[in-house]
Amino acid sequence: MLIERYSLDLLQEKLIPSYAYEPFPKAARRESWLRLADDIRAFWIAQGETYLHAEWPVLPASLYMDYVRTGNCTRYQEAYFARRKALVRLVLAESMEYNGRFLDDIVNGIWAVCEESTWCWPAHLSDISRKEVYSLPDIDEPVIDLGAGETAALVAWSYYLLGEALDAHCPQLGKRVRRELHVRILDSYEREDNYWWMSFQPDMLVNNWNPWCNSNCLAVLLLIEEDERRRVSLVHKSLRSLDRFIASYKEDGGCDEGPAYWGRAAASLYDALQLLHSATDGAVSVFDDTKIRNMAKYILHMHIGGEAYVNFADSAAKLSVPAGLIAQFGHVIGDAQLQAFGLHAYRQQHEYRHWEGEEIPSLQRMLSELFSMPEADELESELELPLDIWLAGVEVMVARERGGAQGWFLAAKGGHNGESHNHNDIGSFIVYADGSPLWIDAGVGTYTAKTFSPERYSIWTMQSGYHNVPAVNGIEQADGGQYRTRKVCHEADGVVSRLTVDIAPAYPADSGIRQWTRTYTLQREADAPSRIILEEVVQLAEPSQNVVLNWMCAYEPHVHRSVIALQDEAGGVKAHMSYDETMWDIQVETIALEDEKLRAAWGDSLYRLSMTARCPVQSERWQFVLERG
Fold first, then answer.
1. Is the distance from CB of 129 to CB of 113 less than 8 angstroms?
2. Which domains does the chain have, with CATH numbers?
3. Digit-coded pLDDT (tens) for 7-65
């Protein structure tokens, strides 16, 4: 897409020279900064004051080595992120005030970051360097991963904003900054075509790393590189790489990594496209493209209510989305609904104060919020959401009883088990009622060395046995792109929303499953309560009594003879489901949650309700109806 539209010759003609490129007001341009609201300026000055004369966290070699030794990446990254969190707040505080009070601490922060032997996160070192597992980096071979890109962009934007003041305060700092950004980022970006995230190699994985790394490299390139010929050449290279990411999506814009990664997939693509737009005075712009517009709206389509989002793949059930960016994305593509959704979320996050809790600070996104947020007209009290969404590319269905959080919410998925951030979850589904979770996807725990290793599917949250899918003859779904759905059909007419998939190919042959067709239906009734229906049509090679249906629950389900009652957090019955007690034995397992990330989403525990066939099964048809009250 990008390369087809924007040639090297066009970039040479349209790219604004580095000395004239000002995507946001520099701190020395005081009129723009002084026009910001007093409460915003006071907030960021107060944030910076908390780090005045503070000690910078140390990053000893043994802490970096901790990942290889224990599989824990958190301990190093906590200190690593703390440095960057401090620096970004000091930079914004000085930009707001601009009297030099924060400059010594900013110099200390930038110098400390430049002194780090690597900006690469420990968990990525061997993967990116393509060498055997090392516990410490080779400083003669700097690599670009997510951490290196984020750090480089932070340093580049910091110097962009305060370069005049820093040059006067400490003339040698600019030379050091340029040296580190060239050696660690620009030289490597020019030299390498084999970083897997560039996606230049055939059959290479394409995921959020592509736009995330490219957008940060672009920022460094556009802000720092003074050789205009090299600058144009590397911008053109970024277009080639970003094209691979865009091409990996279907026209409907569905993200197989899940909503948690939208903020670093389509949203990072937005970061890159905004840089290209501003650096060419609008000559490079694809915001009118249908696929780009659909990629933007994916996050809206996956919204359940409040902080709840459809959490297939490595997504948490509760997300803090980049609301300001969403509003801006909606504005530039001319989508009023997406813009309103972003502004709603922005207000729920207490506007600019949401940055207090951000783990990975992004100066580009902060500056965009300060200077590029669309005007907020009077917003409706409740956001209107689409009733029916079908993303054929990733085979995800969303159906709402009404256009908001109230009423039934149903999401179901097909696809395959070779997705990026895959869980073995073909045929799984999620049900909420009035914003309360009933049948759920547990999501993902804190990343460790196991998460992206051959041991990934030893983690219970990744296994199909802990999703809302069956197991037959003790066999669960297998991982790999060949394990997928067949005969997929979606229909919606405003009254009935329905998805039908055969999930038999998601299981190894020794499961004995010839057919397992699931039909998920949200039936909206005009003169009676709406309901959700799950139908199963099953054909096994041989009769088997080892047939189990698993149902994951946020709250403890209560079984009363032939009825399963589902409650909300307050203990009120939200829904019930009848079943044939002569056909099924019921067992409820309490899953104690020890992982911090899972506990943040669900509390102390989850529940798995397992229905085991009492009689041999070979050819059967079952129906389960979920009703309110």
1. no
2. 1-22+196-384 (1.50.10.100), 36-192 (no CATH), 388-628 (2.70.98.70)
3. 999 999 999 999 999 999 999 999 999 999 999 999 999 999 999 999 999 999 999 99
